[in-house]
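FW: tagging you since you asked about this chain on Friday. Here's the raw sequence from the shared folder, copied in full. Didn't touch anything.
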Amino acid sequence: RQRQMCIRDRYVIFIPDGSSDYPIDELDGMTPLMAADTPNIDKMAKEGFGGLTNNVPDAYTPGSDVANMSIFGFNPADYYTGRGPLEAGSMGIETTDKDVIFRCNTITQKDNHMDDFNAGHITSEEAEILMDSLNDYFNGKYDDFKGRFYSGVSYRHLFVYSCDSAEDAKLLADLKTMPPHDIAGENLDENTSGDRWDEKLPKFIKKIMWESGEVLENHEVNKKRVENGKKPANMVWLWGQGVTPTLPNFKDVYGLDAAVITGVDLLKGIGAFAGFDIIDVPGATGYFDTDYEAKGKYAIEALKNHDVVFVHIEAPDEAGHASDTAEKVRAIEQIDKHIVGPVLDSLKGQDFKAAILPDHPTPVSVGTHTRDDVPLIIYSSDKTGDECESFDEQSVLKGSLDKKEGYKLMSRLINDDF
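HL: got it, structure written out here
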């Protein structure tokens, strides 16, 4: 969709997912944000305003779903129903109020423990074959099987289970399930026990997970992976479930046309529900090998015909999960060089506002998300900044931004509330 915009502010929000961290001995007590060479982001900080924010309300798990819903301008307390439903929105899966949508990871289990939550970053092509095999198996074994697997990208897939009533769907949606990246090395039975797991529907969901292992363990795809020294995708893990959410249209709320650039279905789903344009970028993988330069170029083009562009980069988060300090620093530097620098250069001479913030921390020492505050920089082309000198966990404390809930970011930008 192309249109001629009237002359008014443009807004760009950079989201280096999970980039915030704790001090690391390997970096002489610095965090990856401190250690990374980021001249463009630091220039943005020196000319802008710094402070802290938090995108995860107290009652919620610090996941990318809740945190990015906040950054996109919606209070999770009002709209969040689960991670799976948001990803379904990006895949165009039609659901009813009787459907429960689960996030479905292809995992590697070993001796009934979570050996790898992403099965060695299995390829999308391999995973699609496995999802098809699971659908064939379960539909062949059970009369009127009420579930269906939908293949996504790499290890990230969906499972939709149709309940007999909306009430049953709500009960299943409220079941406590564990994110697989939070239980690395842990016993799988212990993470599917108690808290209503012995009830009929949850017990059947657990049965599906364990039976998937019988199908996948000796699958030809996995035999080849093992032969090539790769981890097998020998089980699926169902989690992050919920019923279909209803988000208001972003333009109705903020009066602006928005677009999102991301390699992650989850964020595409939030954007789809909120009426964003979803900008697909060739080479955007949601992993270390993502095409940073292409993301920068597509963001520049998107800003020519949208009021607001969100640019999300997953690589720092993946590095945090992998406890890979060097890769996390490299990812932050690539974001600075190929995305933030070129995008800000393209906006010179125009009225615009920009912000950069992680959705949540993903410390390499922890290997998963935490709910700590995250650094925030806001830049305005027509304002002089404060005392902040760089974009990191400590430097932003010298800034003048009041700490406010993450979902207020868009209104702060629009109303000059900084």
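FW: The first strand starts at residue 10 and ends at 16.
HL: agreed, and Confidence is low (pLDDT under 50) at residues 1-7.
FW: great, closing this out.
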